[in-house]
Amino acid sequence: MAKSLTSHRPLVGITLKVIAIGLFTIMSGLIKEITYSVPTGQVVFFRSFFVLPVILVWLALRGDLPKGLRTKSPILHFWRGLVGTSAMGLNFAALALLPLPEVTALGYATPIFTLILSALLLGERIRVIRVTAVAVGLIGVLIMLSPRLGSSETLQDQALLGAILVLMAAALRGFVQIHIRKMVQSEETSAIVFYFSVTASLLSLLTLPFGWVMPDTPVLLMMIGTGFLGALAQIIITSSYRYAPASMLAPYDYVSMLFALVIGYVWFAEWPSTVMLAGAAVVIAANAIVIWRESRLGLDRGRAKPLTDPKGG
User: Fold this and answer.
1) Domains of the chain: which residue ranges?
2) pLDDT tens per residue across span 53-83
3) How would DSSP label each residue in 182-214?
4) Could you tell me if 108 and 284 are in contact, meaning their C-beta atoms sit under 8 angstroms apart?
5) I want to staple 47 with a disulfide (CB 3.0 to 4.6 A). Which of 10, 155, 226, 299 is the partner?
C-alpha cells in the first residue's frame, strides 16, 4: 500500500499557512520599496523569473522531475499566465500609489469577484446567502473607497487610481480562480505554478523597450529576493494543505492584514484610517460568510486554493 502524502495535523498546517502569508506580505513590502525606482514590468520579470530555479530544485528534491512539469493543455497555461500577469502588474503598480495595508484590504475583494464571475461566466446559481455575501463585500469596498472619492487633490487622485488598479487586479484574480478550477482537472499543481512563472517572465520582457533601468546593488538584491520569497511562500502554502483541510486554513488568509499593518507602520510609516479598517472588516465578514457556506456545502477548495497568491497575482 502506498503511503499517504497527507496527514491530519492542523497545528502544523496552520503554522505553515501563517508563515507563508507572512512571507508573501514581506515580499509585497519589498515590491513596494522597489517600485519607487524600478518600472513595474521589470519588477514583474524578477518576481517571476527567480521563482523558476526554486520550483525546479523543489521538484527535483521530491523526485517529481520531469513528471511534475508535464502538461496536457499548454493553451490553458497561456491564458492563466496572461490574465495572472496582468493582475500581478496592476497590483504592483498600485503598491507605489497606496499604503500597503490598503492594498492588502482591497485585495480581499477577490473572492467577491470570483462569486460574481462564477455566476456570469459559468452560470452557477448563487443563492441568498452568497448574494448577501456579495452585497456586504461590495459595501465594504465602497466604504474603503469613500475617502478617495470626490477629491481633486493630486495625491488623492493618485490614491484613487491605485485603488482602481487593486480592484482591477482583484477582478482578474477572480477570473484566474475560475480558470484554475478547470485546470486542476488535468494539470499538476507544480506545472500550473511553473508555467505561470515562465509565461509571466516572457510577457514582462515585452515591457523592456519602455524604460527598464539598471538598479543599484541593494535594489537588485531586493528584486531577486521577491522571486525567492514568492517561490518559498508558494511551496510552504502548498505544503500546509497536506496537514489541514482548505476550509480550516482559509480564514488565516486574513492574518495578512496584521502583517501588512506592522510592515506598513515600521517600514513605510503608514497607518490606515479608521474608515479603511472598517471597510476591510466588512469585506472580511463577507468572505467569512462565503467560507462558512462552502464549508457547509462540503465544497472541495483544496485543489485550487494552494495556487492562490494574495499578493502576487
Assistant:
1) 10-307
2) 999 998 898 888 888 898 888 999 999 999 9
3) HHTTTS-HHHHHHHHHHHHHHHHGGGGGGT---
4) yes
5) 226
